[in-house]
Automatic annotation (TrEMBL):
A family per Pfam: CheW
SMART domains: CheW (SM00260)
UniProt-listed GO biological process terms: chemotaxis; signal transduction
Domain CheW-like: 13-153
Name recorded for this polypeptide: Chemotaxis protein CheW
Species: Pararhizobium antarcticum
């Protein structure tokens, strides 16, 4: 297995926000994050995709709230007082991502981001930018732009 860094990051410093979904750690670039909010219930929307929990009013703007665990193929998150909504901008649209809790804001070198290993030929690793191994475990580095295709984000807004 190669320990070569993922192309595109090189040795640049990356600011990331780490969060937990169930017992797994994930992260995204802080440049995609607008804010982190405490858990608040959303208003359900009839016939919305399964990962859409509903919508929320964010200072006068209605945004979709996404169950990120469900979007990643995991068991849906059961929100509680420790849950958070990570408000992100993807393809010029603001969305809220429900996570179990925000862990940390970190600076890592691009060379620390390892490629996602090939598991099977049918395995779709497009959601993952790479894997960051640190002293406490591994963090899956998500790519929100690939996770939410531009057309899909437009449909969430409709």
């Amino acid at each position: 297995m190669s320990n070569a860094p993922v192309s595109g990051f090189g040795t640049e410093n990356l600011e990331i926000i780490a969060f937990r979904l169930h017992d797994q750690e994930f992260c995204v670039k802080t440049t995609t994050i607008r804010e982190i909010r405490g858990w608040a219930p959303s208003t359900p929307i009839p016939h919305s995709p399964a990962e859409v929990l509903g919508v929320m009013n964010l200072r006068g703007t209605v945004i979709p709230i996404i169950d990120l665990a469900h979007k990643l193929g995991m068991k849906s998150t059961v929100a509680n007082e420790r849950s958070a909504i990570v408000v992100a901008e993807v393809h010029n649209m603001v969305i809220g991502l429900v996570v179990d809790r925000v862990s940390d804001i970190l600076t890592v070198q691009g060379s620390q981001v390892q490629p996602v290993p090939e598991i099977t030929t049918s395995f779709d690793k497009s959601f993952a930018e790479g894997i960051i191994a640190n002293e406490t475990g591994m963090i899956c580095f998500l790519n929100l732009a690939r996770m939410f295709k531009e057309r899909e984000v437009e449909d969430l807004a409709a």
